[in-house]
């Protein structure tokens, strides 16, 4: 619990004014909540004709006696008003005092809640920003091990749980305890004997409630993890709907989904039932205390007498005392209910900060260098690399790409071609060896600066649910419409974009699904064209295109790659015949290299691959 609170403190500091205001208004609320019942005593004294006829004006002695002084002063004025204007006028005055007291109590309650709401939502906004920043900055390797649904559950569900439960702790430590303290202080003043009698029941109630709430945190953690798995299932089912339906796999997917939803159901019911038990249990224990008070206090009013014959406790004081005793029930009930909810919030806070505090384990240069352009070229030296410490994907790999040259990587699936693109862009860090740009290790180059030098077009055309223009502007956010259209023309995409109802303002749909595969890929290429980087990495960039589109895009790519340093990962060998150098890879190693004609003359693996594709 302490760790979670410590981690939230830095976020809370930005809302210091709201926290201080909330505390001040909560103190005033607690004070007037208690005084509102004390104000009823004079009214009942007038009703029961208990006002003393000869009351002397009290003398102020010290701050320690301020409560007694205030009460005695009020009694004095009520006695004087009753004598001068009659009981009816005194009653009206006392009712006005009661109304004003309750008005102030509720006003301070609202002002405390207003500041808490501002603070609570502000912290949650900042947490979401921090978490989203972390999500975008963590390396790709992190997400190869994590379900996207779990990350989404932490962003949406767990932070929402913090709002609903964890921040109740601020009421637990200020408002409700102070209400109880002020109320008990007044109760002690009215009757020490009766209040000590109440204290016998409070520890018993607290012990019973705490025993029930003990297992809540572990159940909440399990429920939140299961929610993450559940969201992943939904996300994967939506993404793979075509596969599920084409393979008639609905029953299998449904079975997995039903298992998860039933686990969530059982956990949520168990948590909900324990939460639901908090309020009635605390109220029942409270009413037991009230019942005992009625018996013991009633005896003091009706039976026990002082030496002068007066009852030990006046009826008006006893009724106000009962109101005060019941006034303890509301905050006590709130504390017991909130303490249960806070258990859920603690589990959510742990999961939120687990992601926010996640370390990326990437090497970070002490003084990273910023490169504006590429001057000499790219060198890959003696690289060994594996994903997740498994078998090596690249073994002792070396490659030299001079500035302005185009190097193509070919080979069977799993030979390590795309891994080169992942390492150049530092989606992953290498295990051994180094990659240099202009003889500078890329680990020493500022990551943003490094990626600014690279244009990447992947096999999967990744588009966002936005307009064509905004998708392409990712390459250069301040580009004009003319520049966007020019990039589309170079990518041979303007022909179909210009025919769309809203042109470049047309929305592409979720993941670009309103467009064909070839159209999506040409927009991805246009995005890279607009960025205009000195290094181009094309990872199977034409694999999703039909023959006609491929020819159009291939011409555009060749124009774009002129005077640029390019690494082309290719499946279709017809697209890389003009490359300055072709690297043939097998199981992470280079087995052949040379130009298209040189490799054909060697009659090796490259010749085999070309012959195989000529029959496709």
Question: Could you name the key traits of this structure?
Answer:
10 strands; single chain; ABC transporter transmembrane region fold; 23 helices; Rossmann fold; 616 residues; elongated; alpha/beta
Domains, number: 2
CATH class of the largest domain: Mainly Alpha
The termini sit apart by 64 Å
Sheet with the most strands?
6 strands, mixed
* Overall shape: elongated
Report the helical percentage: 55-70%
Task: Count up the helices.
Answer: 23
User: Radius of gyration from the CA trace?
Assistant: 38 Å
Strand percent estimate: 5-15%
Protein name: ABC transporter ATP-binding protein/permease
Pfam family, one: ABC_membrane
GO molecular function: ATP binding
Domain ABC transmembrane type-1: 23-344
Please render the helix and strand layout as text.
Elements: H1 2-12, H2 16-38, H3 40-47, H4 66-85, H5 87-137, H6 140-145, H7 148-164, H8 169-190, H9 192-199, H10 201-213, H11 216-239, H12 241-246, H13 250-302, H14 315-356, E1 377-385, E2 394-402, E3 406-411, H15 417-424, E4 432-437, E5 440-441, H16 447-452, E6 454-457, H17 468-472, H18 481-490, H19 494-497, H20 517-531, E7 535-539, H21 547-561, E8 565-569, E9 581-586, E10 589-594, H22 596-602, H23 605-614
Parallel strand pairs: 3-8, 3-9, 6-7, 7-8
Antiparallel strand pairs: 1-2, 1-4, 4-5, 9-10
Protein name: ABC transporter ATP-binding protein/permease
GO molecular function, one term: ATP binding
Transmembrane segments: 23-47, 89-107, 165-188, 194-212, 277-297
């Amino acid at each position: 619990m302490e760790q979670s609170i410590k981690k939230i403190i830095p976020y809370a500091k930005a809302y210091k004014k709201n926290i201080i205001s909330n505390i001040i208004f909560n103190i005033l609320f607690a004070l007037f909540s208690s005084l509102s019942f004390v104000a009823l005593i004079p009214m009942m004294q007038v009703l029961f004709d208990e006002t003393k006829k000869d009351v002397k004006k009290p003398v102020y002695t010290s701050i320690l006696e301020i409560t007694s002084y205030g009460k005695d002063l009020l009694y004095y004025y009520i006695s004087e008003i009753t004598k001068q204007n009659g009981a009816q006028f005194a009653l009206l005055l006392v009712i006005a005092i009661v109304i004003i007291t309750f008005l102030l109590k509720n006003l301070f309650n609202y002002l405390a809640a207003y500041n808490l709401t501002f603070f609570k939502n502000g912290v949650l906004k900042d947490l979401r920003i921090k978490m989203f920043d972390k999500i975008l900055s963590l390396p790709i390797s992190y997400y190869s091990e994590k379900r996207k649904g779990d990350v989404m559950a932490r962003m949406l569900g767990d932070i929402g749980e913090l709002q609903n439960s964890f921040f109740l702790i601020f009421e637990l430590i200020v408002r409700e305890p102070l209400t109880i303290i002020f109320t008990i202080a007044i109760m002690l003043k009215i009757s020490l004997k009766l209040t000590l009698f109440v204290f016998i029941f409070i520890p018993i109630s607290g012990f019973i409630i705490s025993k029930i709430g003990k297992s809540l945190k572990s159940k909440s953690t399990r429920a939140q993890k299961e929610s993450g798995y559940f969201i992943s299932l939904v996300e994967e089912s939506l993404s793979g709907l075509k596969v599920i339906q084409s393979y008639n796999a609905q029953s299998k997917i449904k079975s997995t989904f039903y298992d998860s939803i039933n686990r969530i159901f059982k956990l949520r019911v168990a948590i909900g039932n324990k939460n639901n038990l908090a309020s009635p249990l605390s109220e029942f224990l409270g009413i037991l205390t009230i019942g005992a008070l009625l018996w013991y206090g009633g005896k003091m009013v009706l039976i026990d007498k002082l030496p002068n014959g007066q009852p030990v406790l006046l009826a008006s004081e006893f009724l106000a005392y009962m109101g005060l005793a019941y006034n303890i029930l509301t905050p006590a009930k709130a504390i017991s209910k909130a303490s249960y909810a806070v258990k859920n919030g603690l589990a959510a806070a742990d999961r939120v900060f687990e992601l926010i505090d996640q370390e990326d384990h990437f090497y970070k240069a002490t003084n990273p260098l910023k490169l504006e352009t590429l001057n000499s070229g790219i060198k890959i030296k003696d690289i060994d690399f594996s994903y997740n410490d498994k078998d090596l994907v690249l073994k002792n790999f070396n490659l030299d790409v001079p500035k302005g040259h185009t190097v193509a990587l070919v080979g069977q699936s799993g030979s390590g071609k795309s891994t080169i693109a992942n390492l150049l862009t530092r989606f992953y860090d290498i295990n051994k060896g180094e990659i240099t740009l202009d003889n500078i290790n890329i680990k020493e180059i500022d990551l943003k600066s490094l990626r600014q030098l690279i244009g990447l077009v992947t096999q999967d055309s990744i588009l966002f649910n936005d307009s064509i223009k905004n998708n392409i502007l990712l390459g250069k956010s301040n580009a004009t419409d003319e520049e966007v259209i020019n990039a589309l023309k170079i990518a041979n995409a303007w022909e179909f974009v210009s025919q769309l109802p809203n042109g470049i303002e047309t929305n592409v749909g979720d993941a670009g699904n309103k467009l064909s595969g070839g159209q999506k890929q040409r927009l991805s290429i246009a995005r890279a064209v607009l960025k205009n980087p000195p290094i181009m990495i094309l990872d199977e960039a034409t694999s999703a295109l039909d023959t006609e589109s491929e020819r159009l895009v291939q011409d555009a790519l060749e124009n774009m790659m002129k005077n640029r340093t390019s690494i082309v990962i290719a499946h279709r060998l017809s697209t890389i015949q003009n490359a300055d150098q072709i690297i043939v890879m097998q199981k992470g190693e280079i087995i052949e290299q040379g130009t298209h004609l040189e490799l054909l003359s060697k009659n090796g693996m490259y010749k085999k691959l070309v012959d195989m594709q000529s029959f496709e």
